[in-house]
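Review form for a predicted model. The reviewer records the input and the model, then writes brief findings.
Reviewer: anonymous (R2)
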Amino acid sequence: MPASQHQNPKTDIEISQTAKMTPIIEIAKSRLGIAAENLDPYGHYKAKVSMDYIKSLKGKPNGKLILVSAISPTPAGEGKTTTTVGLTDALNHIGKRAMLCVREPSLGPSFGMKGGAAGGGYAQVVPMEDINLHFTGDFHAITSANNLLAAMIDNHIYWGNALNIDQRRVVWRRVLDMNDRALRQIVNSLGGVANGFPREDGFDIAVASEVMAIFCLASDLDDLKKRISNIIVGYTRDRKPVRAGDINAHGAMTALLKDALAPNLVQTLEGTPAFIHGGPFANIAHGCNSVLATSTALKLADYVVTEAGFGADLGGEKFLNIKCRKAGLEPSCVVLVATIRALKMHGGVKK
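Model under review:
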């Protein structure tokens, strides 16, 4: 074919936007055996699986768990999600009952140089734009819970500080799901007596919040509440820790996270079911999707393919040493993604 007749390959977003998706209620029923009454739909192509249904699966045997990790990556990423999606589609193609579990993308990287995290090419989860943006609102709930605790700390100090919190030793920071270096270090409570006592503070990105890590390790709502109550928010002048439970923030925070805790069900371009739920970074947390999503998937499919963030020395090790130990999981296989680009970069080849 002459060069003039060659068609430019479609971009990821063009492939995603032209995809013919199956209603998620049909995917749940035909691929996983989940009835419509056990779903909370978010439109036609996204749904949360009810917590009551998840509890009913407790006695079922587990399928096999496959971890996708990578060698030390480059800033652009090496394709763990793409490999995860492609492998799961391939398993279904050869007649295996398989599904995948991956993390929800953060808006920071999505609007940065890395871009989205829904796979690439024809190995994507869809609806891609929804997944990369607000999705089902889980990250907003986590952001709100984190910042509610921050507000309650300052409010406690303002109204007498009965716990004797040392304002210099408040370690709980606010969060925003965006890259914004101007907010990394700030001074809060400026503007006079009515606004409290000024102190140094700062914002992290939402996926770096301890609430996100706890959210992804919790086994149910009660476990989530218990873990939140144990968060250390600061110290007294005697260096004694003050916890979220001490200022009675854990109940209200859990209420904000109640709906978010249910796993999100979507599909790949080939109609393979996928859980996308939670998204802690692997450099400051354990870098894996939620325990609830993975453990539920293992009850629904014979093969569950999941990934862990960054390289094997970060997310991979934390998946094995933290998530698997805490949740009682045992992977049957590990797939390691390696690229020539990463080998060149870490071998010292100039950009």
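Findings: Residues 138-257 form a domain with the Domain 2, N(10)-formyltetrahydrofolate synthetase fold (CATH 3.30.1510.10).
Further findings: The chain has a mean pLDDT of 93.
Recommendation: see findings above.
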